[in-house]
Amino acid sequence: MKNTLIILIIKLVFISIILFPKTSLAQVVVIDPGHGYASNGSNPDGRTDTEHATALSVGIKLKNLIENDCNGWSVRLTRSTRNGWLTLSQRRTISNNWRADRFISIHCNAGGGTGTETFWCNRSNSPQSSNSRFSRQIQDRMVEKGQWRDRRSVEDASFIFHLGVLTGNNAVGVLSEIGFVDTGDATKLLSDTWRNRFADAYLVALQNDLNRSCTAPPTGDTQAPTTTISITGGNSQSGDFTANFNDNDNIGVTRRFYQALEKYGDNWYANRGNGFFNDNFNILYSGYTTGAGSWSVQNGHLSQSNISSDNTKLNTFLSQNSGLPYLYEFSAKTISTTGPRKFGIHIMADDVTQSQRGNSYLIWFSGEDDKVRIYETVNNQLNFRAIENVSLDNQWANYKITYSPAFGVIEIFKNNTSLLRWTDTTPIKNGSSISLRTNKTNMEFDDLKVYKFRANPTQLITAGSSVTKDIRRQNGKIKSLVRDAAGNWSSPGNLDVTISSLSRQNPNIIDDTKLSNSIPIIYPNPIINNSLTMTYNSVSNERIEVSIWDITGKFLNKISKTSKENSLQNLNISSLLEGITNGNYIIKIKNGDHVSYSRILKQ
């Protein structure tokens, strides 16, 4: 009887290992978006739609962040739909059956207060010290990134009662009350921008509490993913349309990027105001501004032939303010066989008129010692951050850089092989330019591109005559690149599209692409700490006027400045906020003959 029992136990353990494999590197996270409507549309818990929707939205965003950034982590939602209500015991059972390491139940508060609070339970099946520590980590990150009043991190029964979703839960877990649905907190709860920050706070708390960032990718996988594109309704569209991406991999796609391009003559360019960039260097693009160096297009490549300047510049405006990851890609070949043989690119730059581009990251390759380095420029001062070996020769190579503003992760690839990965704990969130750079080196560049991140297999592409649209010409193109957990990159997927409502058909001039430069970028929005900056490209040497108006049309404040013609400017407009209470406002910008408007939120 005893031997039979032992054999049975061994079998059960073996089955458990097969069904629920866990390693010291893997982490299992269960996310519980609280409440929700029942399948018949009823509201069993009587909660507001603000709580139902906010909990679900933040939960899905957190799940996407983990899946996109944390190789080897497993994540599950207790509900993924509006009508996905489950009992407390069902939610707890999901967590235990999934063998969760961490459990986060997401809720919103009510009762007329303000701020955020986090609860842990001393009747869970995990150590009290672990639950208390995790609760404090969640609370601190939510206060920091969500900019909430710190109400409390507390054991549940000491303040309210034992929470059923935590009682008997095997995971280290918390219940997080983000903010109050019935006060001014609701403005942030309903903001997609703030929901992104709440999800960011949870992920950083998870990484800190587990004492590890996302795990290393699996080894041995050399099969590249694939990506193709189709368009709902066909390849001829009259306006905004949905692009469908079919991404496949033998293990799983972890990063997805896309471009929207528009054709000018024989050249494909992109709307820089929307965060896209493309130049194949058939001609020298009129959207560049140059500093030191001898920049020209020779035989279909961009050439920099000056070997005396140690800091050459080729700059272009590019809005990098989405808060989502970007992919920067270019090809390069070193012509010089002696000397420094150094080249690279500044990304997320906010002032390319300065020698070190203001605030930015510099990805810097050196053939002199076969190294790649990451520098961060802070207030126009270079600061070394990371270094790795790289084999550099006088052959063409493809370079990719991915950057996540939410998490500060920069990863560098050469010919689709990862070279260096570094995380900035205080990442740069906004940028207005990119800038190529060399040091006493004759270089050639080609195919400079910037892609934007997409989380889903579908993406809305805007098309029309407005300068804010993704595609503003009759001939457009959608491109896609994806990466798997092992760092393998796909070949580009691309699809041509015709915008039938547009009459502009491939003109031989590209001057109107500069229109995107005249769209000012105002950030941060929502406003943080009464600080407000405007990045814009001056189109004349006339005075630029920036004014703020309330939503009833009442004028409140104004500032003005004289700018240099055709120069990228960063203007501190925080003084507009003096005496301004929380709420929605309109910023009016008069730049030469161009007038534009932006809506901002102060809270």
UniProtKB/TrEMBL annotation:
<keyword id="KW-0378">Hydrolase</keyword>
<dbReference type="GO" id="GO:0008745">
    <property type="term" value="F:N-acetylmuramoyl-L-alanine amidase activity"/>
</dbReference>
<feature type="domain" description="MurNAc-LAA">
    <location>
        <begin position="92"/>
        <end position="207"/>
    </location>
</feature>
<dbReference type="GO" id="GO:0009253">
    <property type="term" value="P:peptidoglycan catabolic process"/>
</dbReference>
<dbReference type="InterPro" id="IPR002508">
    <property type="entry name" value="MurNAc-LAA_cat"/>
</dbReference>
<dbReference type="InterPro" id="IPR026444">
    <property type="entry name" value="Secre_tail"/>
</dbReference>
<dbReference type="Pfam" id="PF01520">
    <property type="entry name" value="Amidase_3"/>
</dbReference>
<protein>
    <recommendedName>
        <fullName>N-acetylmuramoyl-L-alanine amidase</fullName>
        <ecNumber>3.5.1.28</ecNumber>
    </recommendedName>
</protein>
<dbReference type="Pfam" id="PF18962">
    <property type="entry name" value="Por_Secre_tail"/>
</dbReference>
<dbReference type="InterPro" id="IPR050695">
    <property type="entry name" value="N-acetylmuramoyl_amidase_3"/>
</dbReference>
<keyword id="KW-0732">Signal</keyword>
<dbReference type="GO" id="GO:0030288">
    <property type="term" value="C:outer membrane-bounded periplasmic space"/>
</dbReference>
